[in-house]
Structures are given as structure tokens and as C-alpha cells.
Design brief:
It is built from 11 helices and 13 strands. By secondary structure, the chain is of the alpha+beta class. The chain has a 5-stranded mixed sheet with strand order 11-10-9-12-13. A hairpin with a 2-residue loop joins strand 5 and strand 6.
Length: about 375
Amino acid sequence: PKTAPQYDDQGRRLVWMVLKALYGGKASGRYWYELLRKTLIELGFKASEWDPCVFTRRREDGNYYYIGLYVDDTLHVYSDEKEYEELVRILRERFLGYSDLGTLTEIFNAEVTQHDEHVTLTQTRYIEGLYESLCVEKTSFEKTPAALDLLLTVTTAREAGIIDEELRSKYREIVGAVLYVAMVSRPDISLAVGLLSRALESPDQDCLDAAYRVIRYLMGTKHLGIRWRKGGSTVMFGQVDADWSKVKSTSGFVFFMASAAFAYLSKGQPSIAMSSTEAEIMAASLAALEAVFLRGLVEDDLGLHQGGPTTIGIDNQGAIAISKNYMSNGKTKHIERRHLKIRELVQEMRVKPEYVPSSDNVADIFTKPLARKQFEKLR
């Protein structure tokens, strides 16, 4: 309390012991999670072994109840309306201020729209806000989020190492804002944001212009988002790609379910690949590990049986051959074991690499800037 004394009569500094977690405290979020977790388990829910913020309850009669947590927000997916009403009643009794906001229409600064055949996630309002607050010059919109030479732009700025504090502050603000959009609803800007993130320490004016370009592209395509097909296939499949570069290459993968991209990544590789095949096998192993996690989540927690190994499309025949062949030779013995993890997962029948033509490999959009025609096709 502001009125509480800070020192005792002898002038010694007082230290106050907090009996309960206070909002905003360093460990408060952890305490809140532990309390909510304990409550849900008491109510018959099972905490996921794959994701600590997913809780499930499935009945023998086929009824299911899934809860997703995000701090103090809960997302409910259920088959029995009475079970939902009873749970809301209990939570209201135990937690002061708990409220039922009804059918999901907004989450993570994103709009959720339900149609007869689809459920769509967009961030139209958030993008409009970014454009109005961050774009000083309201110029024409862009058709793609990145110029073809964006990697060169970023590399040049990093090598120059010139720091302009005002420019860097503005640049970081923009990159952070568009990174959030990429994570929530817009996989099509993942590569652009990933490359821009490599120049956070010493961006130049060209990098800042490239960051503004992403916002202009988003504004021109603000109604696009992720769309799930109701009744669509729950068997997931993925595609992976790598951009072999003189600097560290870029890995990209995407996994689909119910006709939507529900997991995706664009990330710089930790080391320089010696060949395009090596770059591809590094990316494929990264995607295979993601497939293991996703399979655990959808099979163990959601009860969506996959019926066989998860197919991962690769556009490099050499990488496919290496992933299926345990023989060692001079072309592969220098590759670290962790980059060959896909071999083990193929042997265990968890993943199945298959060839996909480069022109049809959607993961290509996560590894290199593309010309408009090919970009829009893959998008």
C-alpha cells in the first residue's frame, strides 16, 4: 500500500511478504496456471503431454470437451451443451469475474467468422490499425510482401553494421508488429518477416523501406486469412523446402489439416549447407520433428487417428533418398546426426517423404521471395 511505512523505528528497511500472487508479478502467471490446471484436473480434464495449455475430457459415449488456455482466456470446444453450461457455472463460482463471452468471434486480435462450409481467421482490424499508425506515407499497396532481393538487402545492412538509433527503434516496432500477424493468421508474410528479423541490430533505410512494404502488402490483402473447411479431412500432411544460399540457408515447412495451413515455419538454418541436398535434408528433419509433435497433439489429445505415417512433400530427390537410406557415404558423413533425424522417423513409420514438384511445393513461399504469379499461386 502507498500509505504503508517503508522503514521501522530503528530506520531499517521493511520487506513485505506477499501472501497471494499479485497481478503483474514475475511469477503470477505461473501461479495462475497452476491453480487453473489443478481446478480442471479436479473436474475430470486431462492435461496434454504435448501442450501444457490444452486440456481434454472424452467420455465413453463419444462426447468430447477440449479447452485451450491463453493466460486468463479459455477457448471451449465441446459436443454437449449441458456439459458446457455446467462447467461455466462451476468456474463462475470458483473465480470471481469469470464471464461467458458466447460464440467465438474474436481471439488474439483476430476475427473468427463461421460460414456453412468454412471457419475463417483474419486480422483485418489489426492490419488497418498498423497501416494507420505506422505508415507515414500512404502510397499504393504491394502485390507481394518482399522484393526478390530482400535477402541481399538484409545481408548488406548486417555487414555494414551502421546503427541509427531512431531508425532502429522504428524498424523494430514495425517488424515486431508484422511478426505477430505472421504468427496468428498470415503465413504468406512469414519469409519476409523472418528475413527482416535478421537485421534487427543494424537496419538501414532499405531495410526500413522493406518493412513498410510488408504493411502495405497486408493492407492491400487485409481480408485474407486462414480458412478451415468444415468436415474436411483430419489427416494432416506437410510440405518442406529449403533455399540453398551462400550464407545460411532458409528452412520452410507447412502442415495442412481440414484444407488449412495450421502449422508453418520460415527459419534460417544454424549452419551453412554444402549443397542443395544438404540444405533440404536439414529442413526435412526440422519438419519431421514438427510432425511428431503435431501427431501427438491431434492423436493423443484430440483423438484424430492419422492411420499411417504423415506424408511430407519434398522437391529434392537426393534428400528423399538420404531420408530413406541408412547407408553412410562421403556425401553425408559430415552432416550432423540431428540433421538426419528424419531417417529415424521414416524407419519408425512416423513420417513418409514423397516427391512434390517445385512448382507445386507450397513450402517454397517460406524460403525465398517469389515473383507475383508464383507467389499468388502458392498463397
